[in-house]
Design a protein that fits this description.
The structure is a homohexamer of 224-residue chains. By secondary structure, chain A is of the alpha/beta class. Chain A has ten helices and eight strands. In chain A, helix 2 (47-62) runs parallel beside helix 3 (81-87). Chains B and F meet through loops of B and helix 5 of F.
């Protein structure tokens, strides 16, 4: 199985981190092909970045390697997701979407814990676009920029850990979704010490595309 | 991996059909253990049946075989699902829930096509309980009882095929979910000839519990 | 008029308290027949308890005494209510439902004040299932278990009084519904000293079944 | 018990019919005092009529006879209801509100069947204002003016009977509310021959104000 | 162009302030005709005031000067607006409606900052009646009566300024609407020193009626 | 006043038609500068087209001529609108948004009448993104492609006229919004012969940006 994973921003280091986590989640039988957006911004922090990222992501998916079985949009605002889905014949999931849907199968209400407060209004719009307002316990953001959080991984982790605790104790979240590609790997650590599951969008997305391929096997078979 | 699949009604023939489909979907590495509800009704056709089925399903899941990694509620009203989830430490999914969430990752709006018109109000309640009203294109039911449809599989299939076509052409459904354990196997056939994917709840549920186990591996590992 | 009131938990002392309050509310012309759930949990504190209680409650209502004119589900999560309604020809109300609907006719928004924080997510689901999210001012819970609150009635009352005040001053509640069978009798006391009405679910339910019987008299008459 | 019932339009014949039905529903122990709006329109058919009716209704309730225990707004758009409620210390209900809330305790979804198509958008707004959109199966209107329906009671009754049947068979209504003061008395007849209950707003309102008085007796007692 | 602006309360000083602001916003080519409600309350502070104001406002608009091209309801609960719209052939807007709709074209979510806490529940109802719940960031009220705020304009302004800041920093409002006719002129000052636009309802309404007249010119032309 | 109007597709003929209509609506004091998307598709008919159009539109607005006072996105899916709004300091409106908001000030519920059925799901998403689901009477589409409708203007006009009539008679629309840049000029004709206003998005957008500039004059003044 060949899965294309597209980092919607232009930072190759994020692509590498995301690809590494995806490989780990996918297991030996699956090939992960990672691509970095060929234009746009090094971090998706506002609506303008997201619009350009949507175009770059769509291009990367439409221009996929031969034999691609599925694609993942690895950016927590899922830029270009529904358009990509209409444009190719294989399944496409976004890391935000995959983690929200997975969360809904683990508990009654989920919270999003993320880094930059500036992204909160867009995350709220995203949850609403997916129709999941009534499943959302809350959104909590650390008071940090996306890029600066790269430079202080330890402080970032501690800040997120506190927000996860607040999401559980104050918002009654039964599951927490960690938002932002920069948080790759942190979810594992937080999940181990939290009373509720803490989901990593990249892991959820890799697993969900495998599920989608399986769900569609009755159709895909026909074409063979 | 050991997955417990509980048929919430008391008909062993349905359990067998469901288990066979689940085995096929799960692949060789997974053990499927099927259980029939130990009390209740031979078919879940109204709210009373569903309440008793919820209790029987919950009992069956709480009293699971040693080493169970996940459980599936194999009844299209997901009786007892959220309670079972609170009661055991492994993931539990329902076939309705799993197919709705899977459908949402395949298209903007999904339709449910099912057999008995009497179940439509409860399905509407279920979609609302999951918060997915805005993702629902519509619900269409054949004019048949659940049990009688067992006796006329060909007629049932034709009736469902027509409803799938109407869901696409009139309700703009981008995905169709086939409702009711009795429809096991029919989805494959309909999906092959439909312009949109037709999902089978049992297949979706088997794949989704595998995804949930993967998503939670960061927590499960800790306990080992 | 004969009204069956079912305590969905297995504590006879709760049944007695509920029956006493119901008799008082019903007035001399009405016979109250009280039943305790024949299986399940001594207090309904989570979704598992509620699923089993739904079955026990449904059984108790279906197996009603001859001449029953209406039934009441006396448990603040209304377990089995809609199923019971489909299963018998007389009206059935739940104490949560009856108090919510009554509250909506007394003010623009109501708050729920209850004992155990663990029940809050399920209460939120219940309000949503009844379609009344936009009428809900908020839910506030004392930080107590249901059973321990039996042992400290004075402390419980004081805790609830404070929450009622907060519901009015902070959430702009125009009516307060007191949740939980254990609160029987407390509502009267709180209502007397609160700026807004404080409703008792048992009282509301007794009065509402009388209303339902009256509303349906045009149908019931036909059968006579 | 003294209940003031206000006909929000200026037609004394409607007041009489409404009062007669209310007396019948209230039983011997209750005094019904009926008032006709002192200004406004002979039938409430549009938003302008409703605004003026709200003022007239509010005046009539504020200027109530001494010893009034509760008031009813007897017009199916409940003009001035929430304002009246804020202005007097006794309970006030509207016939639309009372029938919607009663309907919600009898079934999962209710339909409104009414006379004039011109009132449908306002009824939709009313259901939304009460927060009950998710409980509404549909609204169906006969193609008649309110006044002309007075002149052809038989034809009106037949038209409404057909709409009730459609509400049940097509919209899956589990209860039907008959809208419009002009339909007084018709509900009884339709309810007798329909598979689901058909509610009369005036009857529901009389019974609901009795319920509200009972629910508030813990407060009212204090003042004595 | 002749615009009728109706102050729904009976205070001529408010009418004057509103008319002055409207003239300033309208520019030289437009004639503003201001009317004070001929009956009702000197300030609209509860639902009773609003019901009577709706009637007075409707009367004032229906009885408009010859040649009126549009009308404005200058009261922040828009009393009688939809009824007035049905009753005359020219456009009518309310200052709350106009500012909400304008705000939605300036940012993703808006907050309302107003004077009297007693009006908050009705403002919440109003936002819901317009369907804009998902666009509302929040409502914040100073702890003042409407009339007393007239007497301390400086204190009122400072209180509102703080609330605007909280709306931006805590509720993530991207636009703020200043509620209440008494706030005329304050918006300008606050907007100058706030990070987000602060809208004045009267200004928005004057501009929106001009827009409506333009939008309808294709119809109005026909009658000439 | 200088208004930039961006045609989000790459067809210069559409740009010309849109600019001509905008000039007519704007009146003599306003300069209209029209731009065609520099990349993308000649017609925006699916989500992929819309994603690329969003990027091209955003670029065109960010790279605006000196002295631009406001911008209009002239494509009925408003591609890139909210991102453009965040990226520039002057007001930006979309023709869909402007017509929806204008429609809401003219009647209780509006319908959208458009050309291509393929765009209906995205229009539904758009109405939901703006929070206006409860104000939507319905969406009706002619059975035509966008490009072919250029070639048969008369047939297109007749098809749209029929849909407008159905929107009024069947969906109770009180206002109709004509969707799609290709319909420029048709609205005027249809509005003249329809019982309800028929709005042209380009006209609404021109008038609304003028309104926004006026509403913000208290802020803009400060910078001078």
């Amino acid at each position: 199985m060949k899965i294309l994973i597209v980092n919607s921003n232009t930072s190759p280091s994020v692509t590498e981190a995301v690809a590494a986590r995806a490989c780990q989640a996918a297991g030996p039988g699956t090939e992960i092909v990672a691509k970095t957006a060929s234009f746009g911004s090094p971090a998706i922090q506002n609506r303008k970045d997201a619009v350009i990222a949507a175009h770059a992501t769509l291009d990367a998916i439409v221009d996929c390697p031969e034999g691609t079985d599925a694609a993942i949009v690895a950016c927590f605002s899922d830029p270009g997701l529904w358009a990509a889905r209409q444009s190719v014949s294989f399944p496409v999931v976004g890391i935000a979407e995959a983690s929200f849907m997975t969360a809904c199968m683990l508990g009654a209400r989920f919270s999003i814990v993320t880094i930059a407060p500036t992204t909160v209004p867009q995350l709220r719009d995203l949850v609403r676009a997916y129709g999941l307002e009534s499943r959302l316990a809350g959104i909590r953001a650390a008071d940090r920029g996306v890029l600066e959080s790269h430079e202080d991984p330890h402080g970032t982790r501690e800040a997120l850990r506190e927000l996860v605790d607040l999401a559980v104790s104050h918002d009654a979240a039964e599951v927490v979704v960690l938002g932002g590609a920069v948080t790759v790997g942190i979810a594992d650590e937080l999940s181990r010490c939290s009373p509720v599951p803490v989901l990593d969008g990249v892991v959820c997305a890799v697993l969900q595309v495998q599920t989608l391929i399986g769900s569609l096997s009755n159709r895909i078979a026909r074409k063979a």
